Here is the input.
Amino acid sequence: MKKPIQNILLVLMWFAICTNAMPQETVKMVTRKAEKTFPFNSKNGQVIINAEKGKIRIQSWDRDEVYVAFSISAKHEEADIARQELDYMSYNLVKDRSNVFLNNKMNPPATHKEISSVISAQYVIKVPVNADIRINNKFGSVIVTATNANLITGNLQYCDVLFQSYQGAINLTIEVGDLSCMNANLEGEVNSWHTNIMLTEITGKLALQTRYGSIHQKYGNKATDLTINSYATDILIDNRACHMLDIHLSGVNCPFAITETCFVPNKSLLQSTYNPAHIDAPWTFKYTPPVKSPRLKIQASFGTLNLL
Here is the structure.
């Protein structure tokens, strides 16, 4: 029995040697770059970004100019195919009157419906303080860091979004993706669908309207005014920093759990109709502190609600 086994081992070793000896196909990348700077007045101008497959990074700087470093790239095992399909992505970086327009779009010919290359666009954008920025992006990401803006608005589809050390107003619609806000002072609202939202140590006043997904809010040294209207959303509010909050909750078909130590320091001020045996029935939960406090208002249908 030993000889057949030895023969099998020899065949396997020979197959492994031949496989490793075969030339490995490597991915080729073709890139094109552009860089522009535009004079800009934040008082009467707007930066408008319309991107497709865009990886966008935005930050403030101390100049009255908008700077953009732009690149598009295509990856494929065959360089000629990557070069050809990169031509299908058009872009434009211009200023018209007071506004700066930055955009890119895929425009394949009708005879070439399927793109085999991995194509993306990258924007690194610097804007003056208090700029108005509008971002529309599909199949990409947006990162806003160390930015002080008057307003950021946008429609984001299949995008991951990060606001870090941001100060200003927002008005966003997000369809499928993740939204993270860290160490930010925010005013405004977010409408989301199939989105996971993470809020860490934010201040200001924020309203969320969510359909499917999750919300995780963690209070830091200061508390924010937070309003949530949710459907089929799992919500976790972490108040282990023990801020006194003005709490107004209502729900239906939404299991509710609370750690009362931080949220309800004085039980005589609590009013609740929640009955865990009848979660399908509408319920309310109110805690009104004796002094003016940041507000937590949640209307939840389906999903779960946990106050930690």
In short: DSSP finds three helices and 17 strands in the chain.
